[in-house]
């Protein structure tokens, strides 16, 4: 570096904040960075104890506007604010509309045989690539699974917690992973085909 040249660093902002409204028919309570969301479909709790942020109700909003703020932040660290807001908004959507994911069976020769057991909480996959092994996936938390009523070779997963529903889908997809073959040719598996809500507008 040339003599006398100074390095420029991005200055940290003293405070950054985001605010958002509470959905209709939803009540939110906040205690020690733990947000509990209640609605017509049930209750969800989202914890942010690992994040250095403040969460509180906007003064004078009668607990209908939530503020998320972070002090002395800059760069990528401030992205955690929008992450926290998204988690809370997803929880509010879950307790009002619920989340619904659809998965389709893809096979070329051996038909994938899926049975739903333990009420609506367990998925058993047989005859994947003609294998005798039974693949079993347990649904996470309040997620339930059922066969599609109008589409062949499709299952529908639904629940209030988007993390539980999407992770259950990931477990089902990953358990049908094709090993020791060219995955460009062997496309067999169970894949997510649709993401939406249980109650549609």
Task: Tell me about this structure.
- 16% of the residues lie in helices and 40% in strands.
- It is built from two helices and 13 strands, in the order E-E-E-E-E-E-H-E-E-E-E-E-E-H-E.
- The relative contact order is 0.16.
Low-pLDDT stretches are none
Alpha-carbon distance between the two ends: 60 Å
Could you give a short account of the major beta sheet? 4 strands, antiparallel
Q: Could you tell me the number of beta strands?
A: 13
- Supply the number of helical segments: 2
Strand content: 35-45%
- Average pLDDT works out at 93
Work out the radius of gyration: 23 Å
Strand order, largest beta sheet: 11-12-7-13
Q: From the helix content, strand content and strand pairing, which structural class follows?
A: alpha+beta
Oligomeric state of the chains in view: single chain
Order of helices and strands: EEEEEEHEEEEEEHE
Overall shape: elongated
What portion of residues is helical?
10-25%
């Amino acid at each position: 570096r040339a003599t006398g040249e100074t390095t420029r660093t991005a200055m940290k902002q003293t405070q950054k904040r985001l605010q958002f409204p509470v959905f209709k028919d939803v009540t939110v309570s906040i205690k020690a960075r733990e947000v509990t969301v209640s609605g017509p479909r049930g209750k969800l709790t989202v914890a942010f104890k690992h994040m250095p942020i403040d969460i509180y109700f906007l003064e004078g909003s009668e607990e209908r506007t939530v503020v998320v703020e972070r002090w002395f932040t800059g760069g990528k660290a401030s992205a955690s604010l929008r992450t926290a807001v998204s988690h809370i908004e997803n929880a509010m959507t879950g307790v009002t509309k619920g989340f619904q994911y659809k998965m389709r069976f893809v096979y070329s020769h051996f038909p994938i045989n899926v049975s739903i057991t333990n009420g609506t909480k367990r998925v058993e996959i047989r005859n994947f690539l003609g294998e005798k092994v039974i693949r079993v996936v347990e649904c996470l938390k309040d997620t339930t699974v059922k066969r599609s009523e109008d589409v062949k070779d499709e299952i529908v997963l639904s629940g209030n917690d988007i993390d539980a529903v999407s992770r259950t889908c990931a477990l089902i997809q990953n358990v049908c992973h094709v090993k020791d073959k060219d995955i460009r040719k062997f496309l067999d598996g169970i894949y997510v085909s649709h993401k939406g809500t249980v109650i549609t507008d």
